[in-house]
Amino acid sequence: xxFSKERGEGNxxxxxxxxxxxxxxxxxxxxxxxILIGGYNFNNYYDKETYSSGKVETYKQSPFIFxxxxxxxxxxxKKLGTSDPAYFFISNADGTGFKQVSPPGISITQKEFPKNNxxxxxxxxxxxxxxxxxxxxxxQVYYKVNMADSSFKAEEIFSQSFKIKLKKLFDKNxxx
Length: 176
Description:
The chain is mainly beta and 176 residues long.
């Protein structure tokens, strides 16, 4: 059961109730903090146009529920929305164990769970120019999360030295 808040930003919820029909017990996904669950700026990085997409998701190869969640009023407009960083969270099937998996300050734009692989792949945007926006002017970053490891630590895939080599190669071959 989801509690939605009409915001014109797609399917956004301020919390979710899990009801165990066998025991009659109710469990609120996040009983303490203010959160917004749901969509993300789907084309913000590429087209500089925004529209909401995303949802609460499950994958056959994982026992967890995956969420796109907003917890930080990053742009200081006194509300949570798709202009703030979209974080990746998980919970158990009954709503317990709700936990942020993606790094703070990185807005997740895409997630992929390759078949026959315990690693979840995350793409995101780091506000590298510090303008409080996540868009094409910022650095795109990539993470992997070993879903078989209970720590769910997100590890950046490309090292800083590798990214510097890529930038130099790009500048050499493509900048005029």
